[in-house]
Structure formats: structure tokens, C-alpha cells
Amino acid sequence: MITVGVLGAHGRMGSEACAAVEGAEDLELVASVDIGDDREALRAADVVVDFTHPSAVADNLRWCVDAGRHVVVGTSGVGHELLDEVRGRLQPGQGVLVVPNFGIGAVLMMRFAAQAARFFDSVEVVELHHPRKADAPSGTATRTAQMIAAARAEAGLGPGPDATTHDPDGARGATVDGIPVHAVRMAGLVAHQEVLLGTEGETFTIRHDSLHRSSFMPGVLLACRKVAEHPGLTVGLDAFLDLD
Amino acid sequence: MITVGVLGAHGRMGSEACAAVEGAEDLELVASVDIGDDREALRAADVVVDFTHPSAVADNLRWCVDAGRHVVVGTSGVGHELLDEVRGRLQPGQGVLVVPNFGIGAVLMMRFAAQAARFFDSVEVVELHHPRKADAPSGTATRTAQMIAAARAEAGLGPGPDATTHDPDGARGATVDGIPVHAVRMAGLVAHQEVLLGTEGETFTIRHDSLHRSSFMPGVLLACRKVAEHPGLTVGLDAFLDLD
Amino acid sequence: MITVGVLGAHGRMGSEACAAVEGAEDLELVASVDIGDDREALRAADVVVDFTHPSAVADNLRWCVDAGRHVVVGTSGVGHELLDEVRGRLQPGQGVLVVPNFGIGAVLMMRFAAQAARFFDSVEVVELHHPRKADAPSGTATRTAQMIAAARAEAGLGPGPDATTHDPDGARGATVDGIPVHAVRMAGLVAHQEVLLGTEGETFTIRHDSLHRSSFMPGVLLACRKVAEHPGLTVGLDAFLDLD
Amino acid sequence: MITVGVLGAHGRMGSEACAAVEGAEDLELVASVDIGDDREALRAADVVVDFTHPSAVADNLRWCVDAGRHVVVGTSGVGHELLDEVRGRLQPGQGVLVVPNFGIGAVLMMRFAAQAARFFDSVEVVELHHPRKADAPSGTATRTAQMIAAARAEAGLGPGPDATTHDPDGARGATVDGIPVHAVRMAGLVAHQEVLLGTEGETFTIRHDSLHRSSFMPGVLLACRKVAEHPGLTVGLDAFLDLD
């Protein structure tokens, strides 16, 4: 049985994480801490999960590391300096995992897209979201395009074929590192992304449809289960998925 | 048995039309005419199909109408003036059909999209083509968006919800009469289009994949079979599909 | 302003209908009636919507008709005998609409599928639902296939081409009136259906994704707004969509 | 420059392979051999590609191995006994690659599907082919399902959730090692496959559309380029894709 403490336990992600841990047979929730609570209760936990706030995460992370806990960080705002500092403070055998995206589907999509992009002439990304989203293209689509572009550059591939000479207007989206990213905003959608790849004679499509926040919980649980097996500092859920 | 003559019989569409007519049990190919041939042979045909050239179509169309033939025009470049002139020259019972797109799938997509657009908050179009295409968005996508926009205006609907405030770059495509049209160019594709519609709680998608020119032939044969039943001048295959 | 009363106002659909009517600017909710309440309050309503129970719908429908109300029936279990009886009781100008499916998307999908099926050699249906569903294929998919089969029979079309000689096992689904219907059951899905049509050189796809019950409310509101304009008895939302 | 010889050079795959090798800047076609030709010409080739016939492949493979050539075998019918024999005959540094499927897209789809299947509750396969296909489900779909089932068994996962109690008929397809495989046959299609995966709150889809034989040539060229770098006997293109 792995004991788990949650920091930011009253927030949207934190409260869902508490429920998910309580529902897992091999995990035990031993501390639920939010603003104003004493962090000492977290010392009983093998693993502390942080879903707090960018302004609070540095202090929490230092405290947890010094308290010898394994840590899973789901809060954004962990910069390179903090990562370097944490790396220096870690004790032998202690694991810290910083996770920009707990969605296993999103992680798989990015990884598969980058792997496949080496074998096709053309790659474009279509991301589709609810119409309340302010930014286009989405952060996930931008990261996906960057990973695709990096994989193609490493394989010595140039831009995909494109004879377009007349395209005066432009639609929602962007070209990210040479990869076209199209952004659809539509009532009835939640968060969806499609990576389209093509070579003469065949196309290949990877699509992820995310319908609600519960889809992040399998990633949270997986992180709790595996962080102790991966001493040191890790960024991204990929390394824990045993995909190689 | 309906007898058919083909004008422009040696061109790509014309030769395929000759083969299609010859393969149809209820049609008989009685004249195949191209540049330099005598058009008189066409007098034996109930229906003349024109697949010539924008510079030749006016003269051919006048000749066929004066010869009392039913005519199916698949050549582009038939403007409003010529249409008016033809309307005036027609004899009672004579039918002329001018067809911008013989693809029954494309015609159905446009029609269904316009009908459905009245019932959804959001509509966007994604068109996907081979990378040798010079224009973006495609003509079919532009027409589809125009038809959607007209249907929405008639139903008193405004633009779909869109909270985008940060979209600095733009991707291939355009916003046509308020409808976003995204253009994908990719090796391995031919000609494809998707119309996406959404309202809170549901989405609706109409997709057409066109793989080669043979997909236009059912529309050509249908036009030959029905043009005599529709006296007067008709533009577009829609009216012959008995969809109401 | 159209006044509306809801019968079965405390049920899942009824309570959602009450909220939807209250949220519509051109409708006013004047009566919310459930088991044990007096139906007299419904006399103040131009239109009564019934979301009760198959065992109660006959009595409610008779009462509403005799009270001179326009009626929208969303409860299942209205058989041919009851329909005939209602038709006989209607006063001039009184409208009754019986709706098996308020989902406008589902209605459009069935209609478009039946219209398109006349123009393609092959048609198959894939329905995809959450894994708690007991029946396969779904009722909507079965009705869709029946409508497709009827449209093809009327157009003189036989079964689609299929050279399968070795298919020893069978997967979830059925062949309904000659139309293959495939049934996918999957965690993460809600209610989805795809109609695939194909002819040499092209394919055509109509897809509907329904994510939650709120997607039925636009159909409920549309029924309330239009039932008075359609005197007599009508079955199905189609006739109110002005699609011709 | 790598020199290549093709055995079965007049067949469909062989002739396309000859053209592809001639079109590649880093490969040189030095021998095109078919039935009745002398195989001695193949001694000039660094790599011999075999696209002959199941009845001829054993003799050709022995000859090539004894001639010290690297070999890429695209002919089916290479059984375990022959593989064992070849393994014993190989000289140090000599590479033989036996490839059941040169489609890089198909190889990626199977690999990604098996990797992703460990992270989702439900997995089903939909394969879609032209209506002239005799078998259902397709060989690729069956292998995909087997690989998915093996990956899930290794991860300790049971069957996906499925509450179906009423499914009296069955549609085209099969349940392969517990994985439902649905088979669509449709005019206008070529060879397509979709792997659908789902967990509460999200779905993940991998789709491959193969439109013609040319899509196998990148795999053939990749095999020619890399077989010398992989001494010993290898089965399947996967190992050459550097996906780990």
C-alpha cells in the first residue's frame, strides 16, 4: 500500500485526485492539505501530490523535498531554475516528477506523432475545442507541433510539400516550427486533437478526444504508483509509461 | 434508350463520359465530337454533353440549343449573360442543365450542410487536398461556406460562439462569409471535405472523400437521363436529385 | 409569448425541459405538474409537454386534448390505437406532436442518410455507445438502417456489393433489412453514430456525436414553438424542420 | 551508394520495387531477375530483394544467403523451419530481413495500438475494405487484435467493459482474442483500419488509410538501406524503424 498526501486538496484537480486515490485499492489517502492547513500531516505520506498554484508551488516543492517525500507536481509554473535547485536538494532514492499534462492520451498522442512524423512527407495538426477558449492554437497542439518539428529536423526532413500560392486570408491557427496547426472552436466540443500524416498512397491519423477532467486521474494514479521507482527529477509522464 | 453525343470527347472528362455512356444499359453513345470534327453528328443525339473549354462553350451551347438538342454543360465559364441568352433561345420542352460540379457527393454535402446549419450554434469547414493544389481554400469549400452562411442568415442566426482573443498567426484557409474554412494540404490525399456543426451537447459531421474522377460519372449519367424531363434552363445537379 | 406547461416536471427530461423553457425568451413556463399534482394548472398553457411514463401517457394525452391544449409528447409507449383515438378527438386547429427522438442531430442524420442512400452502391452503419448499454445494435441505428433500406428499395436498389465468403465469427451488431450495422461499446463514449456510404471513387459519411441530454432541449423548444402551426396529429420532429 | 538486385522483377510488387530503387538517389539497381533468368547477376548487389512466390522463396533465399548477399524477403510463405535453417547458414555480418508487411503506416498502427492498449479500459478495431475482399476480418486487423490482446494480457488487463445482453444477430467481423473487430465492406474504399481505445472521459483513435501499392515502397527502400546494419535474421520492419 502506497500512502498519498494531496496538497491543494480543495481545488478542482486536488479534490478529484483525493477521490481517485481513495478509490484505488493499492493507494491510501493519508493527508489532504490546503491553504491554511499544517503541512506536517504530509510527513505520513510516501508520495505528495501538489495541485496548488503557480505562486505556491516553489515553496511547497522545497518543503516536500526537504521532508524526504516523493513528489508529483501537477501545478504549472515550475521553471528551469526551480528544477535545477530541486535536483540539487534531492536525497538518494528520492523521486520528483513534474507533469505538464496528466492526460495519458495526450502524452501518447504527442509521442506517437513525433515517432511517426519521421516516416511521412506531410504532417498537419487540427485541434478542436469548446468556443470559450481564448487562445489559438492550444498549448497542447503547439507542443505537439514542436515535438513533430524536432523529430523531423533530427531525421533530416524539410517542410512537407505544399504548392499553395493563393491563400490570402488565413483561418484560426498558426504554423508552428513549420507545422500547420488548424484551430476549430465549436459548441458541443470539449478538447480534441488530430494529427494527420501523409505520404503518396497512404495517410495516418492519431486522434485524442478528451471529454472531462476525470480523464487525467489515471495519469495521477500512475504517477503516484511509480514515482518512487524513478529516483531523481523527471519531467513529463512519458518516462513512466514504459513505452520503449 | 436515350441517345447521347459528347462534345470534347477526347479530353479527360469527355473520354471518361464516353466510356460511362457506353457502359450504361439505358444510354447509347451516337456521336463523339472534338475540335475539328463536324458537329452535325450531334443531331442524332437526344442529349449532348459538353466537356470542351471555357473559350468554346458559348458557341457550342448556342449551336446545340438551335439544333433542338437537350444539353448538359460540364464546361466552366458559362456566365450570367450566356445563361440569359440561352433561356431566350430555348424551344418548348427543351432542357439545358449547367453543372458546376457533377460529384453527387459534393452536391449532397453542400445541401445537407446548408440544411443542418440552421440547427446548430457553430459551423466550420475543413477541406483537405493533395499538396499540388495552388488555391486555399478550395472552390467547393468556399461555395459550401457561402451556402451555409446564406442559410444561417435566412434563419436569423449570427456568427457561432468564439471567445478567441489570442490568435496571432493564422493557418492555411479563410473565413468565408463568417464561416471558418481550414485548408489541409497533404501527400496521400486527393479531395476531401468535412463540415463540422455543433451545439452544446452534440456535434454533427458531414464528410465527403473523393478519390478519383470516376466519381463524377454517376452524376453525368443522371444528368443525361433526366435533362429531358426538366424543360428550361437549370443550374446545378440538385434539382435533378429529387431530394424534397 | 407562448405559454408552456410540463407534465412529469420532476423527472430527468421534464426538469431539464422546465429549465430550457424558462431560459427561452419567447416561451413562458406557466405550469409544472408531476404525479399527485392537479392537472388543471395546465389549462393556462398554450402547449403542454408530456415527459411522464408509458403507463401514464394515454390518460394524460386524452386529458390534454379534451382540454384543448396543443400537446408535445416526449414519452414513449404511444401505440397506433392511441394515435387513431387522438386523431378523432382533435378539435380544428389543435396540434399534437409525438416525438420518438428530440435530438435534431439524430433526426437530420436519419433523413440525410435515407436521402443519400439512393445515390451510393454501399451503405453501412457504425454505432458507438458507452459500455453500460444492454442492447446491440441501438434503436436509433436500427431505425436508421430501416429508413435507408426503405429508401433503397423505393429507388430499386439491391444490396451493396460484398464478396465476403469467409466470415466465420461475427462481431457485435446485426444486418438490419440488408444494411450491416456494427456496434462498438467503449468506455469514454456516450452516444455516437456514423453512416458510411460509398461508390467507386468516393465515400460519404454522416456522423452524429451526442454527449449529453441537454442536446435534446433545442428539439423540445422547437416543438413547443411550432406545434400550434401544425394542426392535426404529427409523428416525428422531421415535419417541423422545414427541410424541403 | 548501395547496390540492389530484385528477384521477381516482373511481378507487380517487384516491378514497382525496381522503379522505386531506380528513383532513389542513394540506391542503384544492378540486377532485375525473374523466372528463367540467371541469378548470377545478383552477385553484384549488396542487397537482394525477393518478391517471387511462396513456392520459390525457399530456394531463392538459400541461394542468396550462400552467395553472401544481404536479403530482404517480401514474399510470403517463409515458415519457422526455413527461418531456422537460414539463421544457421548466415555468415557473420550478413543480414536477412523477412517482412510480412512493408506498409510503414500499418506497422506503426499495430505498434502504437499495442502500446496504447495498456492504458485504456476498452479497445475495438474497425477495418474497412473494398467490397471485393473475400475474408473478414482482414489479416492486418486480426494481427493487430492479437498484438493488442497480448499487450493487455502482459499488463494484467482483462476484457473491456461490455454490458451487452441482447445482440442476437452479429455483423461482419469477429472477436479476436477478446478484442472485437468490425469489418466494413464498401465501394469506394481501398484498405483502411481504425483502432479505437477508451477510458472514462477520453477516447484515443489510430487510423491508417492505404490507397495504393505505392505506399509500400518507402518500406522497401528503408529495408534496402538498413538491412546491412542489422546482421542476423530479423522478422518485421519494426526493428528497423528506430522507434525506441
- Note poorly predicted spans of chain A: none
Which structural class fits the helix and strand makeup of chain A?
A: alpha/beta
Mean pLDDT of chain A: 94
H/E order of the elements of chain A?
EHEEHEHEHEHEEEEHE
Q: How much strand content do the residues of chain A show?
A: 25-35%
Helical fraction of chain A: 25-40%
The 3D shape of chain A can be described as elongated
Q: Largest sheet of chain A, described in full? A: 6 strands, parallel
Strand order of the largest sheet of chain A: 2-1-3-4-5-11
User: How would you name the oligomeric state of the polypeptide chains in this document?
Assistant: homotetramer
Count the beta strands of chain A. Answer: 11
What gyration radius of chain A follows from the Cα positions, in whole Å? 20 Å
Distance between the termini of chain A: 27 Å
Task: Enumerate how many helices of chain A there are, as a single number.
Answer: 6
Catalytic activity (chains A, B, C, D): (S)-2,3,4,5-tetrahydrodipicolinate + NADP(+) + H2O = (2S,4S)-4-hydroxy-2,3,4,5-tetrahydrodipicolinate + NADPH + H(+); (S)-2,3,4,5-tetrahydrodipicolinate + NAD(+) + H2O = (2S,4S)-4-hydroxy-2,3,4,5-tetrahydrodipicolinate + NADH + H(+)
Keywords (chains A, B, C, D): Amino-acid biosynthesis, Cytoplasm, Diaminopimelate biosynthesis, Lysine biosynthesis, NAD, NADP, Oxidoreductase
Subunit structure (chains A, B, C, D): Homotetramer.
Subcellular location (chains A, B, C, D): Cytoplasm
